[in-house]
């Protein structure tokens, strides 16, 4: 947005206190951490009314092995193969708490506390891979004391799809049940908590001290390749355990982990599981399937002809030293552009050198998973045009090429319009114009709406090509790492744990993340959280520039939240609200020196690090519903005459709920501060067991 120097007197923080007091009536609304409260107040604080709109899915990005030893094995940590939770994420070793990760408390059932287990919410499912070598699953179950006598749930245990146990309806007033369930011979365990048939209010359930017992070491013999593959063999990941895959023609596929593999010749398609491969190469460990690509044989040289008799030669000069062989690299062989008209899992490498043709085009509403792929193109890499797509893009590498057309900019990594659901995770892409998601057509009750997480993006670029391999100076299209456009009343929308790195003079991004004419719903806002954005620049970094970090409320909208992000050196602004209602900016770190290492001052018309405004002057604007709270900000606006100038906050059409400015406001922000912020973010994502980008 364009900078503005007009600042309205901030609304009294008393109004904020009133607003937050009202919001505490529902745990679906985020609020600053409150002091410890007496037991009688706990149930009121957790008075959530969870609905299908609040369901959270969590397929572990890199599952830990559920390692089973002989005898007894505690189930602990994020060792599930998949999880579904009725309100917020599944909590490990704590109660469900509220909407955010890590907001639970010590698990407590009927006054007894537990140090290990899972805190969940009604309508939850946890799935585990067992392997068939344990006799009994045991746990203490009940509604956590944090909701008092409220809540009503039923606990169910399934083995290989068959219900083995049902607790019946339990409430907060029910006695704890200690259960033992026979799981002998079962290879898959699923723990389910229902909402008791009366909706999701207060349904905070605990699986306390879950344990497998009567376990034996595996004695199954499987066939593996004992001598390994030939030197130079490469492997392309197809999918993970319990999922289908496709191959082109007849190929060799291996199933397993580390050095334990079963090899099989597969034609067209298969399934990554024990049944398809005829055994389990690694008991109790999460496995994957890989395409085995044999090395291209080097032709043997033709035999040298026998030399003709000749007189004894004169002494030969010393031979020239042999050239050093080039380093061995794995080359990706790209296929022609792919058009998908049928649902399924697609892995491979596709390229388009025509800027008008996408590398992959999706033309079906059937669920499509594009994973473990390589993409390259002069236009869009993945295009899903008005087909009600249900699209997953996972673990792919994308490279945008100069379109070499003076009327075009580099294509999007994903461009989807008129879609039903999108999951974009664990991808790495360079030199594209980002992700564009327009006109969501999904159903609010479906578990998946829009999720963009754990991606790594370099140099988002909206510069117009010059048609000769370069770019036109000063001409650009406004592009983003992620833009949501006309995503209306969509629950469970999440843009999280992504890392975006933009290079000055080699990129041109507008708002790195932009929410345009879009809205979540009450209790489930569009959440932009835990992202690292490092740099956002005009092609000429010193030129007047309206882009920046995270823009909420562009074109209006409602129920949007930016929280726990790290935004660094994004030129015009860090995080901002341009309009709309029920907008929250909280707990972010926003830092900018306002200049490049070579001394170039950024953006001739720079703005504040965080601002709250209503550019449309909407008469329906609710000032008290737009809040900035708990942020740390230091935003340099240096000039030739005032190198330490700052503009940290501009609260014109919202509420300043209390934010921290870095040091004195006449202190320059330094590269050391920014480096420390990056290190903190990297530590945070590592602590979650995640990385950004392809694994």
Automatic annotation (TrEMBL):
Transmembrane segments: none annotated. It comes from the Bacteria. It holds the Pfam family NPCBM. Keywords: Signal. Residues 300-326 have a biased composition (Pro residues). InterPro entries: Galactose-bd-like_sf, Glyco_hyd_98_carb-bd, NPCBM_sf, Pectin_lyas_fold, Pectin_lyase_fold/virulence. Residues 1-36 form the signal peptide. Residues 300-329 are annotated as: Disordered. Residues 69-214 form the Glycosyl hydrolase family 98 putative carbohydrate-binding module domain. This is NPCBM/NEW2 domain-containing protein. It comes from Deinococcus rufus. The lineage of its organism: Bacteria, Thermotogati, Deinococcota, Deinococci, Deinococcales.
């Amino acid at each position: 947005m364009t900078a503005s120097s007009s600042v309205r007197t901030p609304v009294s923080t008393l109004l904020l206190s009133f607003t937050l007091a009202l919001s505490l009536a529902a745990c679906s609304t985020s609020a600053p951490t409150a002091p410890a409260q007496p037991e009688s107040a706990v149930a009121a604080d957790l008075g959530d009314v969870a609905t299908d709109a609040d369901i959270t899915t969590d397929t572990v990005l890199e599952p830990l092995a559920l390692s089973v030893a002989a005898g007894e094995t505690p189930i602990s940590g994020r060792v599930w193969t998949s999880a579904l939770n009725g309100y917020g994420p599944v909590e490990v070793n704590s109660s469900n708490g509220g909407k955010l990760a890590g907001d639970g408390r010590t698990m407590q059932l009927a006054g007894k506390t537990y140090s290990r287990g899972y805190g969940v919410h009604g309508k939850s499912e946890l799935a585990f891979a067992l392997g068939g070598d344990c006799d009994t699953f045991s746990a203490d179950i009940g509604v956590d004391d944090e909701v008092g006598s409220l809540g009503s749930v039923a606990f169910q245990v399934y083995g290989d799809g068959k219900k083995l146990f049902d607790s019946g309806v339990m409430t907060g007033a029910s006695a704890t049940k200690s259960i033992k369930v026979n799981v002998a011979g079962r290879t898959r365990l699923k723990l389910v908590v229902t909402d008791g048939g009366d909706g999701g209010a207060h349904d905070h359930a605990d699986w306390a001290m879950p344990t497998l017992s009567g376990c034996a070491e595996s004695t199954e013999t499987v066939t593996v390749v004992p001598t390994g593959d030939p030197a130079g063999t490469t492997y392309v990941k197809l999918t993970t355990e319990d999922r289908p895959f496709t191959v082109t023609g007849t190929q060799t596929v291996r199933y397993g982990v580390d050095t334990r593999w079963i090899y099989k010749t597969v034609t067209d398609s298969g399934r990554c599981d024990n049944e398809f491969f005829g055994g389990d190469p690694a008991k109790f460990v999460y496995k994957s399937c890989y395409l085995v690509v044999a090395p291209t044989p080097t032709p043997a040289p033709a035999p040298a002809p026998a030399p003709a008799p000749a007189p004894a030669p004169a002494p030969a000069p010393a031979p020239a030293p042999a050239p050093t062989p080039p380093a061995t690299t794995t080359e990706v062989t790209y296929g022609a552009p792919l058009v998908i008209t049928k649902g399924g899992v697609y892995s491979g490498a596709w390229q388009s050198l025509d800027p008008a043709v996408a590398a992959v085009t999706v033309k079906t509403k059937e669920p499509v998973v594009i994973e473990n792929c390589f993409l390259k193109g002069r236009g869009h890499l993945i295009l899903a045009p008005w087909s009600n797509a249900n699209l997953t893009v996972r673990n792919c590498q994308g490279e945008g090429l100069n379109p070499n057309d003076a009327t075009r900019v580099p294509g999007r990594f994903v461009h989807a319009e008129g879609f039903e659901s999108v999951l974009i995770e664990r991808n790495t892409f360079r030199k594209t114009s980002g992700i564009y998601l327009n006109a969501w057509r999904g159903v609010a009750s479906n578990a998946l709406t829009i999720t963009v997480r754990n991606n790594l993006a370099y140099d988002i670029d909206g510069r117009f090509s010059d048609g000769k391999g370069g770019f036109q100076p000063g001409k650009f299209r406004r592009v983003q790492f992620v833009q949501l456009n006309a995503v209306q009343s969509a629950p469970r929308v999440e843009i999280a744990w992504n890392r975006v790195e933009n290079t000055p003079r080699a990129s041109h991004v507008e708002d790195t993340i932009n929410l345009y004419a879009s809205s979540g719903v009450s209790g489930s806002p569009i959440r932009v959280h835990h992202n690292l954005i490092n740099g956002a620049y005009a092609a000429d970094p010193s030129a007047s520039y309206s882009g920046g970090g995270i823009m909420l409320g562009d074109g209006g909208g409602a129920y949007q939240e930016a929280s726990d992000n790290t935004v660094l050196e994004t030129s015009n602004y860090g995080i901002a609200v341009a309009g709309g209602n029920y907008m929250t900016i909280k707990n972010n770190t926003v830092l900018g020196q306002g200049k490049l290492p070579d001394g170039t001052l950024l953006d001739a018309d720079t703005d504040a690090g965080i601002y709250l405004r209503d550019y449309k002057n909407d008469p329906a604007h609710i000032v008290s519903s737009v809040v900035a709270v708990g942020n740390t900000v230091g935003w340099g606006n240096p000039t030739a005459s005032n190198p330490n100038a700052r503009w940290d906050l501009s609260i014109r059409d919202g509420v300043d709920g209390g934010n921290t400015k870095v040091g004195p406001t006449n202190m320059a922000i330094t590269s050391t501060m920014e480096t420390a912020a990056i290190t903190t973010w990297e530590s945070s994502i590592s602590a979650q067991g995640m990385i950004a980008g392809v694994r």
